Amino acid sequence: MIGADPWVIRYDNYYYMTFTLSDNITLYRSPDLTNWNNAESKLLFKPPKGMNYSTDMWAPEIHNIDNKWYVIFTADPARDSPPPETDMFCEFGCPAVNHRMFVLESDGSDPWSSNYTLKSKLNTYDQFAIDGTYFQHSSGLYHIYSCWYRQYDGWPANLCITKMDNPYTVSSNFTERQILSVPNNPWEKTPYGRPSNDRLSSNEGPEQLINPQTGQNFVIYSAARSDNRNYCLGQLELIGDDPMNVQDWRKNNQGCVFYQNPSNQTYGVGHASFTTSPDGKENWIVYHGMLDPANG
Fold this sequence. Notes:
It contains 1 helix and 19 strands. The chain is mainly beta. The strands form 5 sheets. Strands 9, 10, 11, 12 and 13 form a 5-stranded antiparallel β-sheet that branches. It has a 4-stranded antiparallel β-sheet with strand order 1-2-3-4, with no helix packed on it. Strands 5-6-7-8 form a 4-stranded antiparallel β-sheet, with no helix packed on it.
């Protein structure tokens, strides 16, 4: 399939996938992870026009939490086109300034037979928010997403974390929000090593990854710019007990942990999700990439 921001899980002998379609959220399922030609599809949500979540619906993910299914996604009201009165406040323009996070909830325990309704808009303090995901931990549930420091920063895009009461309610207030990572390494900037400012510097697309043997908790995120050949995956590891304590996280500053392979005509690899082989013995990564390094 051709699409960005793939999210894949395995459940009851099927692989379920969502990805960015911009104007709706559709769920696909297939018994074979590498063959989606005959996949079944199910429309989960198509918003009415004129709402603050009607356009640019990006990076939907479907999660099973407490025997219900939740779809977390980002959207905006006007196709990412802020008026001049808003755009003027951002030093480098205001890309996605009106994007916020939203949640759909299922009415049953089966992802395919359930119906889905819009449950809530997640509290991101009326600031830019994209690529949100759930981070499940023994201490509770958390929301990790791509954020700005301030309302009109424009750049850089950082990784923020907040505590949740449930999959549709953020409990942290603004002063409790923590920024886990900023794109301060050369490989997190566009172009590589940009020396003059933070324009196009991004940390986004965070995903939880647990080592089943050791129990280590990681966040794998995308770095640089999604339509650039240098887009790659970075890594954070939770080395303490409190996800809301930035000192309990360790960032791998040595470089990308997953990156382009020009000899294989594979560029801009990022926004990954993780699933398993049918027998559960292997862990697999699903990501998007580009064949043409100059056309993302």
